[in-house]
Automatic annotation (TrEMBL):
<protein>
    <submittedName>
        <fullName>Amine oxidase</fullName>
    </submittedName>
</protein>
<feature type="domain" description="Amine oxidase">
    <location>
        <begin position="13"/>
        <end position="404"/>
    </location>
</feature>
<dbReference type="GO" id="GO:0016491">
    <property type="term" value="F:oxidoreductase activity"/>
</dbReference>
<dbReference type="InterPro" id="IPR036188">
    <property type="entry name" value="FAD/NAD-bd_sf"/>
</dbReference>
<dbReference type="Pfam" id="PF01593">
    <property type="entry name" value="Amino_oxidase"/>
</dbReference>
<dbReference type="InterPro" id="IPR002937">
    <property type="entry name" value="Amino_oxidase"/>
</dbReference>
<dbReference type="InterPro" id="IPR050464">
    <property type="entry name" value="Zeta_carotene_desat/Oxidored"/>
</dbReference>
Amino acid sequence: MKNINICIIGSGLAGLSAAYYLKYKYNIEIFEKRERTGGCLSSSKTKNGYVEDFYHHFFEGDSLLISLIEELSLKEEMEWLKGSTGYHVNGKNEPLTTIPEIIRYPYMTFYEKFRLGMLTLRAGEYDIEKLDEVTAKDFIEKECGKGVYNSFFEPLLRSKSGEYSDKVSAAWLISRIAIRSNRKSGGEKLGYLRNGFESLIESLEKEILDSGCTIHTNTPAEAITKSENGWFVNGKEFDLVINTINPKKFCQLGGPNIGEFIYQGAACMTLGLKRDVLNGLYWVNMKDKAPYGAVIGHTNFVPYERYDEHIVYLASYFSGKPPEGIQEQMLTDFKTRFSLKDDEILWNRIFIEEDAGPVYMTGYRSKIPGYCIDGIYYAGMFSEANYPERSMEGSIAAGKKVAGMISEAYSG
Ligand SMILES: Cc1cc2nc3c(=O)[nH]c(=O)nc-3n(C[C@H](O)[C@H](O)[C@H](O)COP(=O)(O)OP(=O)(O)OC[C@H]3O[C@@H](n4cnc5c(N)ncnc54)[C@H](O)[C@@H]3O)c2cc1C
């Protein structure tokens, strides 16, 4: 059906996947507002290769992502590494990966640890629908006590949801725990690509372009209007539109209103350091209050030798616009807190994404939109495939889903 013209708005994983699974069959044009493709999965150069602008890894169960990696002949690059976790409390990195480490953790009583363990074991048994209207905070405090919430979940929720941490739903939290508790403990096995996820984006882009699709970078979709047989995007007529951006922003451009979505932004600083400040840990949630919710030691996950410098991320979330002077605040705090001298910081840069993901607040579950509403196809971080954990897998699944629906409806 080469005579069907499709416009895809956004070239993140959802948009690129939709194009990849529709290629050769239709005329496809992708509109991307930034100068490069990849969206939240974009990368930047370091002296020895690429590193993601936002920390990324994947899981053994991410079957669509793994199949895509294989289809794109990147299987040789796939590697499984150990991801350790900990908390930064009272100025110290406390490891919390293995059972002995959890037993030794001094900020929870034995009884609290027992209640936390029981919650993890029972996570798969809760009726998730009933938990959609309950906040994670109220639920945890009731099930495990305030101590477990304050010592364990509050820093974790803060690192994931910033100022919305006490509004996210118990349905979201429990669904996430249920997924994660199926995975192995004692250092989670996490997936990565040897040359970074840049190779995934590069390969996807090449396949799409080779098939005749067009990618317009530096080209935001600015105006959407209904035409007799389809939609105008920036004045050009298309038979079909696939929207992958925040539905609220899409509506502001003239697209249909499909509901209220609250997104949060991410401000993520990447630094190159001369030494490791995390005692070998990969993911450290900040229990101590800081202008970032987690410190992520990329080179405590991926071998240090690959970059020849210690790479860490400082992760923070915000609503609306990023706080004024965030880069300076993060840097100053990080230097002081981890006693870093100026010459131990080789470089730093910050990446800001205002639409880094929907906030899964109470009531979210019932608002998840369908994949096709009023003639527009929707695939993105807001899609069902990305609930309860927005992920690369979820955005690929959403892109593939709408591609399948279109292929079925317009098979000629
Ligand atoms: C900090 C962070 C860490 C993450 N870590 C992980 C992880 O470890 N593992 C994992 O699986 N997932 C992770 N994710 C999630 C994963 O990155 C996303 O689910 C996925 O990349 C989203 O793809 P998408 O295409 O749905 O959205 P996006 O990547 O947001 O793509 C949307 C695209 O639309 C473009 N756009 C916006 N407005 C317009 C417009 N008007 N016109 C044209 N283009 C527009 C944007 O520039 C962007 O390129 C993380 C995300 C973040 C933010």
